[in-house]
Amino acid sequence: MALSAQNIDLYYGASQALKGVSIGAQIGKVTCLLGRNGVGKTSLLRAIVGHQAISSGTINWQGNEISKMSTPDRARAGIAYVPQGREIFPLLNVKENLETAFAAAPEGERFIADEIYELFPVLKQMLSRRGGDLSGGQQQQLAIARALTMRPKLLVLDEPTEGIQPSIIKDIERIIALLRDRGDMAILLVEQYYEFARDLADDFSVLDRGEVVLSGNIGDVPEAEIMKHLTV
After folding, report:
1. Edge-to-edge, what's the strand order for the sheet holding 203-208?
2. Who's near 184: CB < 8 A, 6+ residues apart?
3. SS3 of 145, please?
4. Long-range CB contacts (< 8 A, 24+ apart) of 55-58?
């Protein structure tokens, strides 16, 4: 298991957001974290990438305990994060947004690989356009492309389909599948839409009220069992 987060407790003040949560991710596989709004999915991702301190538990990445490691050091260790809301730089153009990832890229690989433009051809046509002028779907593609410019070994995606038109959702699904099948990266994905998760995920965990209530191989658990934790 390339990533192993075990028994994670996380608090915001007196409020406990995560209770003994354990999750893992493997190279060459997609692990999907499912659950309704407000159950702790984003909190768990933020803990893994270093944006939020945990109260107890361990986070191991490629054999190293990283729960006390800074966010920049985790990025340099190969963990890339595409947050909910994308968080691109609206006043920087597309090329400049991609170049912000160089700080975390390995030395000698601080350039935008041709593969980025092969995966996201729309970005090549818009290199001089400001990030804030892109559509939501284009911004999402830019956010994923920026993360890939780091040459990550773990790609963490928080709801990449949120607010995106169906045609771009299909593009993102295809790209995630391609990255998985390349076999050199683990992918951890938060998603609300079961169908998107079902078509991509190898393994899954369902969070409810800050706890894992269901997990396993996506093909081994009846859909109805998963859906009862997703529907309001």
Report:
1. 79-82, 154-158, 186-191, 30-34, 203-208, 211-217
2. 27, 28, 153
3. helix
4. 55/9, 55/10, 55/11, 56/7, 56/8, 56/9, 57/5, 57/6, 57/7, 57/8, 57/9, 57/20, 57/21, 58/4, 58/5, 58/6, 58/7
What's the rounded Cα separation, in Å, for the pair 118 and 78?
A: 22
Q: Tell me: the pLDDT tens digits for 50-105?
A: 999 999 999 999 999 999 999 999 999 999 999 988 899 999 999 999 999 999 99
For the record, the structure tokens of 86 come out as: 């994308």
In this prediction, residue 218 has a pLDDT band, given cuts at 50, 70 and 90, of confident
Identity of residue 112: I
Cross-strand bridge partners of residue 81: 156
Backbone Cα Rg of the chain:
17
Identify the burial level of 91 via C-beta atoms within 10 angstroms of its C-beta, where 0-12 means exposed, 13-18 middle and 19 or more buried: exposed
User: Is residue 123 within 8 Å of 87, Cβ to Cβ?
Assistant: no
Q: Percentages helix, strand, coil for the chain, rounded to the nearest 5?
A: 35, 30, 35
Domains delineated in the chain? 3-227 (3.40.50.300)
Q: Strand pairing partners for 180?
A: none
Using a cut of 0.85, tell me whether the model's pTM lies above it.
Answer: yes
Q: What is the pLDDT of residue 232?
A: 62
